[in-house]
């Protein structure tokens, strides 16, 4: 059964003046473009991986982000280019929203030398230091302690950079979650914790991972604000993130944001669907992209043709990324040991 | 192969382990403002081992600070800060607490440069005491270097002299990779005459601590100190060469080969369990390249394959003692 989602957008009313009220058309079109980019990227990599598996290849694990696009797009839309992002095993959306190159991400997922991590990482080890993208992560909860370090560095370097750390509701049951929130709170370090609660850790329901109604309620134990947003409403996510990022940048410490959402696909490609049909139907009817496009057209901010043109342009770029990947070499095995040590 | 202590300055003074490490950190913090230090009780109190004594006062609460009792958060902070360009030193009060921070160290920090295709440097230094002999039992007495050596990406340093402790810690802090720097708790009273001023000792260079012709004994940390005592004890009958690798990764296997080519015999001594230990790997490498020149079967004298027990009589039975080293030297030489 789909849970009613609390909306804590006004958790800090003093921040509201900083917030774009959601009437900025070019901003909303940019959010739309970003979400469509992520959606089509995921659908395309599923297609590519399925074909490779069918051909007897082992393309690696694939945890897709389709259905959760509003969170990455909304949160990253309030960040500076030099802000830090730590991501998860389900992290392609965060990478693309943080501005990583579509071609390089596509190449990395397919183990090419032109990939963002030069073929050493794959889906769960996407990094782009120049863009402040500090990694997707193969370990659930693995990014949480590391996010303390970039936040600390921002304080000591006095550069105002904020760290955002994404994780899932499953990750919030790890010890690293509690150690990190505790320390960030004690130190008042500029970090925003974004929990993407898609209700299932692999196949395990959130009720097994957390006894509370909201993951955000865990924030009280660490003396920081804990707020809930509708993770399928990109404008709600953006407003919530804006307040938390502003708070962090002002030096007032961390915030825990919980974004309730739902992934469209099973945990990964090799795990069959296990979720109740009725629940899936309810959530799929609240597709984050359709929710935004309905708002844009209903309020006259864009026509369906204009939105289609954005989508078509993204499909073209995606085709280019696939061609780039296909024409890219595999990494040279003779160089495999060269990058271990600086 | 390194050379024995050089005269850096004319004036000499007596120096103990903690002061040597404190000087190393102090000098590196003065040299590079990217160096920072954190851990439990290390701020105003100066650390349970007094390693950071006076440093918070000198460098401020941003660069030297107490953390919550959260080893995973401490190591995570170190790795993340290194990703953002700092050169953190993280203190673990005992290396035994490594189990509480395995993920940030093993899965993240050690592999980060590699996983990212070479984008990041991870210049962290983890400092911690190790070893048995202080009746602190199974959670405060281990030597876990074998675990560390099995995590590609980590460098491991275990010096045995005051000169090396200071010089190698400075090199560890300057190194652009994650380095685990371990000292033995039974060496706090070790005192040495050293020069005033600064010096460094490079990572990855072994040192012949005592020259000899009949057998090569490879030993590090406290076991190198003990091996030198054993070499002295048998010196009337057996000429022992003691090689201290000082750094276990990268390992100066060439120095060990050179010595074994001369003596034809090898004994490796360490405190951690013999099973899957560094000794087994050194013997493997020597057998692979020097088999024909060996006069007798190489041996490893390591710790028992047991947790470290509490009672003194039990504890001593689990780690190599002077008499054990003497006996094994004789055994290898007799073939």
Can you describe this structure?
The complex is a heterodimer of chains A (342) and B (335). In chain A, 42% of the residues lie in helices and 9% in strands. Chain A has eleven helices and seven strands. Chain A is globular. Chain A has 342 residues and is α/β, with parallel strands linked by helices. The longest helix of chain A has 30 residues, at 25-54. In chain A, the strands form two sheets. Chain A has a five-stranded parallel sheet, with helices on both faces. Chain A has helices spanning 25-54, 69-76, 92-97, 102-109, 143-157, 175-187, 206-209, 234-249, 277-284, 288-298, 304-326, and strands at 84-86, 163-168, 191-197, 200-201, 204-205, 226-230, 255-260. The longest helix of chain B is centred in the N-terminal third of the chain and has 15 residues, at 17-31. Chain B has helices spanning 17-31, 55-59, 71-83, 102-109, 112-115, 145-149, 162-174, 222-233, 253-263, 278-290, 312-318, 322-334; strands spanning 12-16, 35-39, 64-66, 87-91, 125-130, 155-157, 179-184, 191-195, 207-210, 215-219, 240-244, 247-249, 266-273, 299-303. Chain B is built from twelve helices and 14 strands. A seven-stranded mixed sheet of chain B has the order 3-2-4-5-7-6-12, with helices on both faces. In chain B, strands 9-11-10-13-14 form a five-stranded mixed sheet, with helices on both faces. The two termini of chain B are 28 Å apart. Chain B is α/β, with parallel strands linked by helices and 335 residues long. Classes of the chains: A alpha/beta (342), B alpha/beta (335). The A-B interface holds A 84, 115-121, 125, 127-129, 134-135, 137-139, 141-142, 144-157, 161, 163, 175-176, 179-180, 182-183, 186, 338-342 and B 36, 62-63, 67-68, 70, 72-73, 75-86, 88, 103-104, 107-108, 112-123, 152-153, 155, 176-177.
């Amino acid at each position: 059964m789909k849970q009613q989602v609390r909306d804590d957008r006004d958790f800090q009313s003093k921040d509201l003046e900083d917030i774009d009220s959601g009437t900025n058309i070019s901003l909303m079109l940019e959010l739309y473009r970003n979400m469509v980019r992520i959606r089509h990227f995921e659908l395309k990599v599923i297609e590519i991986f399925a074909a490779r598996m069918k051909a007897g290849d082992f393309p690696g694990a694939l945890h897709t982000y389709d259905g959760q696009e509003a969170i990455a797009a909304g949160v990253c839309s309030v960040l500076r280019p030099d802000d830090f992002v730590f991501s998860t095993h389900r992290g392609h959306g965060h990478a693309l929203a943080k501005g990583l190159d579509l071609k390089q991400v596509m190449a990395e997922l397919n183990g090419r030398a032109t990939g963002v991590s030069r073929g050493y990482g794959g889906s769960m080890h996407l990094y782009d230091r120049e863009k402040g993208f500090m990694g997707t992560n193969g370990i659930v909860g693995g990014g949480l302690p590391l996010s303390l370090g970039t936040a600390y560095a921002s304080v000591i370097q006095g550069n105002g950079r904020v760290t955002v750390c994404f994780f899932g509701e499953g990750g919030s049951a790890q010890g690293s979650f509690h150690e990190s929130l505790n320390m960030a709170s004690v130190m008042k370090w500029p970090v925003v914790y974004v929990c993407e609660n898609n209700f299932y850790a692999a196949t395990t329901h959130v009720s097994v991972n957390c006894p509370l109604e909201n993951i955000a309620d865990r924030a009280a134990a660490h003396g920081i604000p804990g707020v809930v947003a509708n993770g399928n409403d990109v404008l709600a996510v953006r407003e919530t993130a804006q307040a938390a990022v502003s708070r962090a940048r002002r030096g007032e410490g961390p915030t825990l944001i919980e974004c309730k959402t739902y992934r469209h696909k099973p945990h990964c490609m090799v795990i069959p669907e296990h979720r109740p049909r009725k629940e899936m139907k309810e959530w799929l009817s609240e597709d984050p992209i359709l929710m935004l496009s309905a708002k844009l057209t209903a309020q006259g901010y864009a026509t369906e043709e204009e939105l289609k043109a954005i989508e078509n342009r993204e499909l073209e770029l995606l085709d280019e990324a696939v061609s780039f990947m296909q024409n890219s070499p595999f990494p040279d095995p003779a160089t495999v040991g060269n990058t271990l040590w600086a | 192969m390194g050379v024995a202590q050089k005269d850096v300055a004319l004036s000499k003074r007596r120096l103990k382990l903690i002061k040597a490490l404190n000087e190393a950190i102090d000098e590196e913090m003065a040299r590079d403002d990217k160096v920072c230090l954190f851990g439990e009780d290390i701020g105003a109190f100066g650390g349970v081992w007094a390693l950071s004594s006076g440093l918070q006062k000198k460098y401020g609460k941003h660069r030297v600070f107490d953390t919550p009792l959260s080893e995973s958060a401490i190591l995570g902070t170190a790795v993340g800060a290194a990703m953002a360009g700092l050169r953190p030193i993280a203190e673990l009060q005992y290396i035994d607490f490594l189990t509480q921070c395995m993920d940030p160290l093993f899965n993240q920090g050690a592999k980060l440069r590699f996983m990212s295709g070479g984008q990041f440097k991870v210049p962290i230094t983890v400092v911690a005491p190790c070893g048995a002999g202080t009746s602190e039992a199974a959670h405060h007495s281990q030597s876990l270097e074998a675990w560390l050596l099995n995590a590609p990406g980590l460098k491991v340093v275990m010096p045995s002299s005051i000169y090396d402790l200071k010089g190698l810690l400075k090199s560890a802090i300057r190194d652009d990779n994650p380095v685990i720097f371990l000292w033995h708790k039974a060496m706090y009273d070790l005192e040495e005459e050293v020069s005033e001023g600064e010096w460094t000792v490079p990572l990855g260079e072994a040192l012949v601590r005592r020259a000899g012709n009949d057998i090569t004994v490879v030993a590090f940390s406290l076991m190198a100190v003990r091996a030198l005592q054993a070499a002295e004890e048998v010196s009337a009958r057996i000429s022992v060469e003691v090689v201290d690798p000082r750094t276990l990764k990268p390992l100066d296997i060439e120095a060990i080969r050179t010595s074994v080519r001369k003596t034809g015999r090898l004994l490796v001594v360490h405190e951690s369990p013999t099973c899957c230990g560094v000794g087994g790997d050194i013997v493997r490498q020597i057998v692979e390249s020097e088999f024909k020149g060996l006069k007798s079967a190489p041996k490893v004298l390591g710790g028992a394959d047991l947790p470290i027990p509490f009672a003194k009589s039990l504890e001593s039975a689990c780690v190599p003692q002077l008499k054990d080293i003497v006996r094994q030297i004789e055994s290898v030489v007799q073939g």
